[in-house]
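Throughout our pipeline, every protein is held as a single compact record rather than as scattered files. This encoding replaces a full spatial description with a residue-level series of whole-number codes. The remainder of this section carries one protein's record, kept here as part of the documentation.
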Amino acid sequence: MLGLDFSFQSIAVRYRKNIKAFYNFVPGSFPSDISFARASGGMYVTDSKLFVSAAPDTPRFDHDLSSGDTLGLLIEGTATNMVLYSNTLTSWYTSTNASVTYASSVGALDLYEVKRLSGGSIPERAYSPPINTTSATTYAVSLLVGKSDGGISRVSLENGARAIWAFGINWPNDTSLSVANIDTAVASGSVSINGLVVAPIATNLHRITFTFVADESNGFNFRIQPNRVTSDSANLFGAVQLEAGIAATSHVVTTSSPATRTADIARITSLANGIYDVRVVANGVTTDLPEVTVSGPYWPTEATGQVEAITVFTAGELS
């Protein structure tokens, strides 16, 4: 009795005659029959786990923050960072017994030592210029955090009346920060912090991302309290971003006003008009799109984020 062969090689042979186009973006090269445009620059992660800025109209091939492995072609929509001086925290305000000084860089993004000076009290902080949120709108937050003296740091979005959200970082004695070290219940009446991710970059350096739904529209400040346990101590922070949207995107550097990264626009230009089946691999997920009508340059709406591959088949192949 003959067995059935479901090996990758067998499947590839089966599909070979019915593949109309195949694009593999993991190697980091851009096919000639795909057009690309982005009116602004854009940040991405290199294989050395460094943040760099690509010039306008230049494709970005993103990499994993922890391993440096290639993740694919980065396709993002328009995003506006509402936090002023996001990469220059020395331009933020500080309370009487707090200081902010440059510490180091991770490529194009900088880290700053936010310090509670000797004689200061627990609330000593650095804080951004005011930010106006819109009630019932979803926002994504991202920032870099690094361990210096450790202790318990507090990060919040608040005004004189209340915190819209806040979280504490209880730095562990070892070098690995995780979600378990983040206390999201430190502010009475704060909104929920959703989808919290702590992504390691290097020893004692991480990127924190999450979303929240604003519940009012008053002016708030992004506030950082470096160490609530010991005076004359510090921790590191940088690349602070608050953007409208359901997920954090690549960092947009601001100065004295909000800044916008325009959308990445990629289009497959070589397909004849007709109906096709399309398979997209993006963000580690495979999505099959049967019977897609192509009329002119085409790009699947599902091919956003870190796009690994797009395969175009004869119609009916994926049914």
In short: Residues 1-13 have pLDDT under 50 and may be disordered. The longest helix spans residues 8-16. The first strand starts at residue 19 and ends at 24.
